[in-house]
Specification:
This protein is 82% helix and 0% strand. The chain is mostly helical. It has 3 domains: 1-194, MFS general substrate transporter like domains (Growth Hormone, Chain: A); 195-248; 255-527, MFS general substrate transporter like domains (Growth Hormone, Chain: A, Up-down Bundle), CATH 1.20.1250.20. GO terms for molecular function: transmembrane transporter activity.
């Protein structure tokens, strides 16, 4: 294939990966608007996001089988068609139910696009070009995460809410055209029977486990529904693995895991995405709730993370280090960022937090593309689809568990430390829901007191109350105002205590990541 053609194909796939990354976060800032425009309930708002993640987790493995069976070109065209049509349907939705259904279909397109894009790399590119191509694809998807709030915020401020979905349609059309005319049609000539039982078991197992993790972030890990989903999902996945070991036509060739590099890459990808999404989960909340900025400004404040990622991705291959060392250094940077994150306070300036973001970006840019490249480099062309699906499944599960587990740690620590005195049970419950609700309650109380003090002042000036009563009421209001200030301070400091615990866990996982890299990865390995 001509050099220019294959890089043009990569650009179209990169746009698709970027689109998936942006879609994952841009919707979050549109949720209040969707609640107003579509009349969506809190539960429906949650399903706009979680339904997509659930379908994506369920379909990643079967999608890899489709890629291997029908070829990358057909799979990529189909994935962009589904994604484009689903995005258009999302934009035209008039009810919450219609949008939820369209998001389900959107996840189908994303599930097929991810392994199809990754698996084309060993087919199109020479061995010495594959890592560069992998880095571009992985970096584009990762950069899309912090870009989502920036782009989404700008679109919401200047256009209607459906513009965040319309933008994907022309990108999908362009990608389809490029793929049709420039990508070679390479198919796996060895057709095998479909492992229907494997597909069913993996879908139910991964779906049940992912649903349990998502539900735990809303309820608790001891909730009956959560426990049933988690335990049931694990049991079914154990049955799935047992079936794969003896099935004649298995969904996953379990011999892949006998490869030391591939199996190590799978584990380390899970660990790194756990850390990465933990950091991405905490930092936006800090910017919005502690610094008090909006969603678009929050996205802009995450630009140092993108800068660090781009610098590391560009310089990684020029350092002349083995992939093992680069991955290890990536985990070290993640650990340093986590350690510095533990020292963040409510008085920390943006410069300090930007430093944490930049170092985290350096770690992501060094480690994640290398890990994906190492995993893909061990796959033969006829196993590229399902192999890349395995890598991306662990990436998806790692990110979901990172948000759920670290979110639970943050919430539990916050509830344990926040001090609530003299308020109704209803307000206590609202404050315990999270820092956003806590700040809203404290701020509303402060505004109410300011209005009450103004009314009291007017009554005194109009001689409607005595000086003694005025002083007594003023003393009560001042006391309530001090309590409201203390509540606001307690809410913020309790959140910071929670973020410190989150960063501590990320630090520990980073340390384990370094150990696993040093022990399991061959010394001079190059993807």
């Amino acid at each position: 294939m001509k050099i220019k053609k294959k890089w043009l194909v990569l650009i179209s796939l990169t746009l698709g990966s970027l689109m998936i990354g942006i879609d994952a976060t841009s919707l979050n800032i549109a949720l209040p608007t969707l609640a107003n425009k579509l009349g969506a309930s809190s539960s429906q708002l949650q399903w706009f996001v979680d339904g997509y993640n659930l379908v994506l987790a369920v379909l990643l493995l079967p999608a890899g089988l489709i890629v291997d069976r029908f070829g990358q070109k057909i799979s990529i065209i189909l994935s962009f068609m589904i994604f484009g049509v689903a995005s258009l349907t999302c934009a035209l939705s008039t009810t919450p139910e219609m949008l939820i259904g369209a998001r389900f279909i959107l996840a189908v397109g994303a599930a097929l696009m991810t392994p199809a894009s990754m698996s084309i790399i060993p087919t199109l590119f020479k061995k010495d070009e594959q890592q560069t191509a992998t880095t571009v694809l992985v970096a584009s998807a990762t950069i899309g995460l912090p870009l989502g709030p920036i782009l989404g915020g700008w679109l919401l401020e200047n256009f209607n809410w459906n513009s965040i979905f319309y933008i994907a349609v022309p990108i999908a059309i362009l990608a389809i055209i490029v793929t049709i005319f420039l990508m070679p049609n390479i198919q796996n000539k060895t057709k095998t029977n479909i492992d229907w039982l494997g597909i069913i078991l993996s879908s139910i197992g991964l779906g049940g486990f992912t649903y349990g993790v998502i539900r735990a972030s809303e309820y608790s890990w001891s909730d009956n529904g959560v426990l049933i989903s988690l335990i049931g999902g694990v049991i079914i996945m154990v049955i799935f693995v047992a079936w794969q070991l003896k099935a004649k036509y298995a969904l996953i060739d379990m011999s892949l895991f006998k490869d030391r590099i591939f199996s190590s890459s799978v584990v380390l990808i899970f660990m790194f995405t756990f850390i990465m999404f933990g950091l991405i989960f905490v930092l936006p909340q800090f910017f919005q709730n502690i610094e008090g900025v909006g969603p678009q400004a929050t996205g802009i404040r995450l630009l140092p993370l993108i800068l660090g990622l781009l610098v590391a991705a560009v310089l990684g291959d020029k350092l002349h280090l083995s992939d093992r060392n680069l991955v290890g250094i990536g985990f070290v940077f993640a650990g340093i960022a986590s350690g510095l994150g533990m020292l963040i306070t409510i008085r920390s300036g943006y410069g300090y937090v930007a430093l944490v973001s930049t170092i985290a970006g350096l770690g992501i840019g060094l480690a994640l593309p290398k890990l994906m490249g190492l995993g893909l480099s061990q796959l033969s062309p006829n196993k590229a689809g399902i192999g890349s699906s395995v890598l991306n499944t662990f990436k998806q599960v790692g990110s979901t568990m990172g948000v759920a587990i670290l979110g639970t740690v943050l919430s539990t620590t916050y509830k344990h430390h926040v001090k609530i005195n003299g308020l109704s049970h209803h307000l206590k419950d609202v404050i315990n829901e999270g820092i956003t609700q806590g700040i809203a309650v404290a701020t509303k109380i402060q505004k109410t007191i300011i209005v009450s003090k103004q009314q009291l002042e007017n009554m005194f000036n109009n001689h409607q109350i005595s000086s003694t009563l005025y002083q007594s009421k003023l003393h009560q209001l001042n006391s309530m105002q001090n309590n409201a200030r203390d509540l606001l301070h307690s809410v913020k400091t309790s959140f910071i205590m929670g973020t410190s615990q989150v960063f501590l866990i990320c630090l520990v996982v980073s340390a384990f990541g370094v150990l696993v890299t040093l022990i399991c990865m061959p010394k001079n390995i190059k993807s």
